[in-house]
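User: What would this chain look like folded?
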Amino acid sequence: MINRKWLTLMLSAGLVASIAGCGSSGNTNKEGAAGSSAEQTAGTQTESGSKPELKTLNLWSKDDYNTYTLAKVVEEKTGYKVKYEMLPADKAMDKLNLLISSAEPYDVITINGEKAVYTDYAKMGALVDLTPLIDKYGGNIKASISPESFEAMKVDGKIYAIPNRASEFAGSSLMIRTDWLDKLGLKMPATLDELTSVLKAFKEKDPGGNGDKGAPLSIDGAMATMVNVTGAFGIATSWNIVDGKLVAAPVHPGFKEYLSYMADLYKQGLLDKEFAVNKDATLKEKFTSGRVGVIPLAWYDIPGIADALTKNFPDAKYAYVPALKGKDGQAGIGMSGGFDRLTFIPKSSKHPEDAIKWINAKLDKETFKLIAIGEEGKHFTYKDGVYSPILPLFTDERGLASNYVTGIDEKLYPVYWQARVQKDPRLFAGFTFLNKEIPAEFRISDPLALAPSLPEYSKNNASLNQMINDFAVKVIVGEESTDAVAAFVEKYNAAGGEASAKEVNEWYASVKK
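Assistant: Here's the prediction, encoded as structure tokens.
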């Protein structure tokens, strides 16, 4: 979280220095002194009329942005030469705060989708208002990015960032050893009761031959609200609709029932006794070493898991569990959404108009497609509405395409993007199951995905989520009773839960109208 008082002071000093460097005329001079607003940079081109070189700051990557294939493609298609720099892998936001406060003259800065960070910068006067620039130079931008996405970017009615809207998809479910099911003559569980029966059979009949060293089910200790199972209690995402309002997980009527179910699994020895200290890598190792038969798993982790499992057990088979139905048939698997990257122009930019022109040029339909997935017949094939990668060239020359995309064609990119999922047939099979074979009514969208930056929610969310997880772990292992839920909700509300809910629902009521 940004230290606002410190950053405000630093920004004030940096911006004053930036403005002072412009001279009394307030215009960018030909030596490139930093300007402080879009209006100060009408002469963004050099005296010869050529386009200026732009300087960008991007997220960390293991590869150099300047030497990757796409850097040259983007330059040829837009006419702009770009010098790419990147944030460090560790403490990236600390570094960014220093760069912003010292008014480093970057023309374009891209960060992850954390709206609170960019909102703070906007409110502190560190960013260029893009609204007039987009109106004047952003025809492709407006054609590609939806009004609702831009609405989520607004700060005090103005647009300060170009969003990369994330493709909405179900990301994970429970992965089960189907060869264990076959060995015991069991069918794939479709309800909570059937899952419990399968776990009991795994424990009693021990198809993995682990004895007391194994467990039927294991989870990551940092994610005690388990995907798919929570959906059977009506809690598919962090916030869910109850009686027309959004409620957080601990306030949801199904939260106590979920904890009771999980605590019972733990008591019966159906849930790994060590789950509370499991890390992600530990969890995966337990599954691939045959000590556990069921774990939550994201589809993008399937190839690594499959390779390790096959190495240890050549005949092993696995599959996703479908959306499990609880009482009254309710079920749900949460979907991702929102924004994975945000791009803004700092006030210290020497070329804000050209920066917008560059972004706009990349969003020309054909140029965007070329950047995103390459050339047909060379990087991909197209048949029956499906884009399929030509390997290995697609990976070699378009594997890092997301680093060069600044805003997306929101209608077409979700279709293009699926070519990336087909790089491995196991990956594609898992993705397809979650997003096509699970019925649409059980794939639940995040209701806050397109919310604007909500100050109370942003301030409290991380600490509240930690509170929820810590409490859930204690209840599951028996340190707390499920009867303690009511007292926990009081603590949760006092710690910011009530303020967050008020803010979230005020916004939600405004968009429902």
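The mean pLDDT is 90. If you want, I can go into more detail on any region.
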